[in-house]
Amino acid sequence: MPLHRVLAGEGKDLHSGTMSRKSPLEDPQIAAHAWARYRRLMRFMMGLTLGTVLLALALIYRNNEHVSPHFLIATALGIGFSMLLTSALMGLVFLSNGTGHDHSVDYRRDEEG
User: Fold this and answer.
1) Has residue 9 been placed in a domain?
2) Residues 20, 109 contacting (CB under 8 angstroms)
3) Do the domain assignments include residue 51?
4) What backbone torsions phi and psi does residue 14 show, to the nearest 5 degrees?
5) Which of 4, 18, 37 is nearest to 113 (CA)?
6) What is the pTM of this model?
7) Strand partners, 19
8) What is the pLDDT of residues 20-72, one digit of tens each?
9) Are 38 and 90 in contact (CB under 8 A)?
10) Is 71 among the domain residues?
11) CA 33, 39, 44: angle at the middle one, nearest 5?
């Protein structure tokens, strides 16, 4: 169905029929296991991020002892935020795909009009 007909209120709702199967994440045991795995991944990435930040700060300080503390803080925050945000988003992708949640979505479109 064309978008202009859906927006005009004709036919079905835009999202009706999108989910054809029940998501595995609706099962409490599967969801608990998946979120525990996600938290384990995030703890590992927090450790790796802290190690990377400390290594970067040590290398900067070793090569130039007269660095502004503001530069060191900005470097630590930039590296830390980038790594943690990237790992959080990729972890959610792994969680969604690993549990089968992605496969429960039906991408077929109605062949009407």
Assistant:
1) no
2) no
3) yes
4) -60, -35
5) 4
6) 0.67
7) 105
8) 567 777 778 888 888 899 999 999 999 999 999 999 999 999 999 789 999 99
9) no
10) yes
11) 125
